[in-house]
Amino acid sequence: MGKIKIGITQGDINGIGYEVILKSLEDNRILEYCTPIIYGSPKVAAYHRKVLELTQNLNLVNSAADASDKHVNIINCNSDEVKVELSQCTQTAGEAAFQAIEKATADLKNGDIDAIVTAPINKKNIQSAQFTFPGHTEYFEQTFGKKGDALMLLVSDRLRVAVATGHVPVAKVSRSLSKELILNKIKILNKTLKQDFKINRPRIAVLGLNPHSGDQGVIGTEEQDFIKPAITEALENEIICVGPLPADGFFGSDEFTKYDAILAMYHDQGLIPFKLLSMDSGVNFTAGLSVVRTSPDHGTAYDIAGKNVASENSFRQALYTAINIVKNRKG
Q1: How far apart are CA 166 and CA 137, in angstroms?
Q2: Whose CA is closest to 103, among 72, 74, 68?
Q3: pLDDT tens across 260-319, in order?
Q4: Helix axes 17-25, 42-52, angle to 10 degrees
Q5: In whole angstroms, how large is the CA radius of gyration of the chain?
Q6: Hey, how many other C-beta atoms are within 10 angstroms of the C-beta on 184?
Q7: DSSP strand E in the chain: where?
Q8: Is 80 exceeded by the pLDDT of residue 2?
């Protein structure tokens, strides 16, 4: 197997995307494991290098095929007129972010790169006729599969947390749940633990939706209506899973350490404890698809953009996670 080619999308040019990308790639040891290819703008990259006082040179190439395995490469996806306005939410930044994603996605689809690591986008300014999604996860799901195929999975060395309903408003969570959806997510999670993380007999914890998992219907019936039936059928399919478990006590104790992964019912139920435990090292992996896409588990962080204080650790871990998953899939 040749050296893995990792496409890196620049994200929002007014945030900390380039800071965490460039800091992660400053250590040339990364070149021992992959060939990095930034999809973005050499002009914008130069601006951030100057602001951050970084000296690393980038190798400008026209295509992924031209990338050097001895250098950090960059492909120009934007107009030379693109303008950086640090910490600002601008239409230009949204357009630049999408252009990078679009080009990298095309190369991933064509097999010119092996995986994508996405820097954070602003979910408001990226909206357009071409991008009408609440986030990267849904975009890649539609591009490489169909609705329901993808699973947002947060990964660290301490725990793995998946989210059944993803980027859904809290008011719509309950009516978005069904036995079929939950069972499908359990199956996807079980498969990715085996395929992408090489866990032979994964143990999955499934959380309840309501406080105290509904207290046998006193505080809600979703557990009885949807979650328990899905777990029962998963067990019949020889998937090892337990639940529905009350989320507060589960994360408040050491129970979470006994499982290979956790399926939360909605975004904040899973991501708040995950980020409390793994904020600096967490990785967002889009499981369930034929392609590999990871990202850091933080946003654009406009408040610290250009100040040279952002930690690159989460982005670095996203790089290594993508590399490891590609290797695991290739065997």
Answers
A1: 9
A2: 74
A3: 999 999 999 999 999 999 878 899 999 999 999 999 999 999 999 999 999 999 999 999
A4: 80
A5: 20
A6: 17
A7: 4-9, 34-40, 59-61, 73-76, 115-118, 151-155, 160-163, 203-207, 240-245, 261-264, 283-287, 293-296
A8: no
pLDDT one-digit tens code per residue, 33-55: 999 999 999 999 999 999 999 98
Asked whether the beta carbons of 104 and 291 are under 8 A apart, the reply is no
The number of residues in the chain equals 331
Q: Which residues pair with 8 in a beta bridge?
A: 38, 117
Say which amino acid occupies 94.
G
Please, are residues 100 and 77 in contact by the beta-carbon 8 Å criterion? yes
Nearest to 259 by CA among 211, 212, 314, 199: 199
Q: For the purposes of burial, counting CB atoms within 10 Å of the CB of 102, is it exposed (0-12), middle (13-18) or buried (19 or more)?
A: middle
Q: What is the pLDDT of residues 54-109, one digit of tens each?
A: 988 999 999 999 999 999 999 999 999 999 999 999 999 999 999 999 999 999 99
The one-letter amino acid code at 246 reads P
Give me the pLDDT at residue 56, please. Answer: 84
* Amino acid symbol at 132: T
From CA 222, how far away is CA 227, in angstroms rounded?
A: 7
In a 13 Å sphere around the CA of 265, the CA atoms on its Cβ side amount to: 27
114, 229, 238, 318, 323 from 191: Cα distances, Å:
20, 20, 12, 20, 18
CB 133 within 8 A of CB 139: yes
Q: Which pairs with CB-CB distance under 8 Å and at least 24 residues apart come from 99-106? A: 100/9, 100/10, 100/11, 100/39, 100/40, 101/9, 101/39, 101/131, 101/136, 101/139, 102/77, 102/130, 103/39, 103/75, 103/77, 104/7, 104/8, 104/9, 104/39, 105/140, 105/143
Judge residue 132's burial from the number of C-beta atoms within 10 Å of its C-beta, 0-12 exposed, 13-18 middle, 19 or more buried: exposed
- Residue linked to tokens 């871990």: 317
Task: Return the structure tokens found at 290.
Answer: 């034929």
At 160 the pLDDT is 98
